[in-house]
Specification:
It is built from 4 helices and 9 strands; from the N terminus they run βββββαββααβαβ. With 263 residues, the chain is mainly β. A hairpin with a 2-residue loop joins β6 and β7 (198-216). The two termini are 16 Å apart.
Length: 263
């Protein structure tokens, strides 16, 4: 009874929501990772155990990424011309995260394997493209690091800030970006036929290949802004093409869905 109804068309959705707290030393750093996602779908049954269809995805996420890394100079004692020579440098690591709202569309091919009168396993092969134009890379800089004391010696510069130097307001920095994801993978779902026209699913991803393309949306002049923005050069590490291959459960979580077959 689970998959042998006369209905040829069905529609439904699955959804996932989770959040995870982070232990951040910087109070401006993002304090939790989160994801909320819903995937509507429409399917057509080819045979008793196969179907094809289209699916879409609407998601919002916030995720910690690798820290941003850059260096700044340390100045020595002034010479006779009151010039402070650079005698060293310090590498700085600051917390960073990424957030975006994505919309995607794709196709799927589903295989039903009956386990009993009301239960089945569903293998779902899918391909999908997602995009989001209003994303941000969020940085939590400690601006005290970027103004080392020019009147201090080398040892003092390693530990002290310059109380008389120019300071900047303490706030998060957001770098606008555009994100495009290409996904190909396979899900496995356990389905229970609650009523003749509705079934419930618990779905988890077995394997997924994802190509993520991140583009910088800042309107800057590299020859000028690179010199005045200490994050400009360092933040370019996040942009470009990134790929990952494996289960997407850690990223997307376990999904819960409903499938309706009213026609």
């Amino acid at each position: 009874m689970a998959q042998n109804a006369d209905s040829k068309f069905y529609f439904g959705f699955d959804a996932s929501y989770w959040q995870r707290s982070l232990r951040q030393s910087d109070p401006l750093a993002v304090q939790r990772n989160m994801l909320g996602s819903i995937r509507p779908m429409v399917g057509f049954k080819l045979q008793n155990d196969w179907s094809i269809g289209i699916l879409s995805n609407f998601s919002s996420y916030q995720s910690q990424v690798s820290p941003i890394e850059f260096s700044y100079p340390i100045y020595g004692e002034p010479d006779e011309n009151e010039y402070y020579p650079i005698i060293g440098s310090r590498n700085v690591y600051q917390e960073a995260s990424m957030k975006n709202n994505l919309r995607g569309y794709g196709l799927f091919l589903k295989k039903f394997i009956s386990l009993g009168k009301k239960t089945s396993l569903n293998f779902n092969l899918y391909g999908m493209k997602e995009s989001g134009k209003d994303g941000n890379i969020v940085l939590a800089p400690d601006f005290g690091f970027y103004f080392p004391c020019p009147n201090c010696n080398y040892e003092e510069s390693l530990n002290d800030y310059c109380s008389t130097c120019l300071s900047i307001a303490y706030y998060r920095m957001e770098i606008p970006m555009k994100e495009t994801n290409w996904r190909v993978g396979m899900d496995l779902a356990f389905a229970y036929q609650w009523k003749p026209w509705i079934s419930m699913e618990i779905r988890a991803n077995l394997l997924e290949y994802r190509k993520q393309i991140l583009k910088d949306k800042r309107e800057v002049n590299p020859t000028i802004d690179f010199a005045y923005d200490p994050f400009y050069g360092a933040s370019t590490q996040y942009f470009g093409n990134h790929t990952d291959f494996g289960s997407a459960v850690a990223r997307d979580g376990v999904r819960f869905g409903l499938i309706f077959s009213p026609f």
